[in-house]
Design goal:
The complex is a heterodimer. Chain A is mainly beta. Helices cover 0% and strands 51% of the residues of chain A. The chains are: A mainly beta, B mainly beta.
Chain lengths: 111, 113
């Protein structure tokens, strides 16, 4: 158990809909990262927040947005969903040291 | 453009033998490298890392080697155990800590009893 929690575990929705994925980092970790893993692909970095502020942005679509709240939990919002958005979404947290600790992921299926 | 490449999608190794997983990178700005292990239905778990100032880092059965001139790193697992069967991801970052990781596509390692 990495100490990073993600909810929900699974999400099934239809094209055009909007969903919110939630992540609670390890206690004390200020950085939260979001990654997307599509079928048979590596993890693609989406966005990083540090202590409530956006710190780095990767290949995140304009239909996607994220935020980190004062209690340090983070939410990833995906809107106008398309079939290609079906993937595993991982959240990771870091104390600012060398490695990132990953949550178990949310599997999103868009039908 | 895949900046971190793991060219072997899968690898099978007999239990007790050495497993060698390879990773190549193209971005010369990368200066920190990590290996993660992933079981089905779980998130990746950190295994071992190496900074660009070193060429080798060892932790128990796991050793990572870095060849900067060739932009190549490898993970050695000796001896391989059935519990090592998992997908292994190589990752790199452009600064030490707290920065985005660029991942390879992973190598599925199967240890044959």
């Amino acid at each position: 158990d990495s100490g990073v929690t993600q909810t929900p575990k699974h999400l099934i929705t239809a094209t055009g809909q909007r969903v919110t994925l939630r992540c609670s980092p390890r206690s004390g970790d200020l950085s939260v990262y979001w990654y997307q893993q599509s079928l048979d692909q590596g993890l693609q970095f989406l966005i990083q927040y540090y202590n409530g502020e956006e710190r780095a942005k990767g290949n995140i679509l304009e239909r996607f947005s994220a935020q980190q709240f004062p209690d340090l939990h983070s939410e990833l919002n995906l809107s106008s969903l398309e079939l290609g958005d079906s993937a595993l979404y991982f959240c990771a947290s870091s104390p600012g040291a060398d490695e990132q600790f990953f949550g178990p992921g949310t599997r999103l299926t868009v039908l | 453009d895949q900046q971190v490449k793991q060219n072997s999608p899968s690898l099978s190794v007999q239990e007790g033998r050495i497993s060698i997983l390879n990773c190549d990178y193209t971005n010369s700005m990368f200066d920190y490298f990590l290996w993660y292990k992933k079981y089905p239905a779980e998130g990746p778990t950190f295994l071992i890392s190496i900074s660009s100032i070193k060429d080798k880092n060892e932790d128990g059965r796991f050793t990572v080697f870095l060849n900067k001139s060739a932009k190549h790193l490898s993970l050695h697992i000796v001896p391989s155990q059935p519990g090592d069967s998992a997908v292994y991801f190589c990752a790199a970052s452009a600064s030490f800590g707290n920065e985005k990781l660029t991942f390879g596509t992973g190598t599925r390692l199967t240890i044959i009893p």
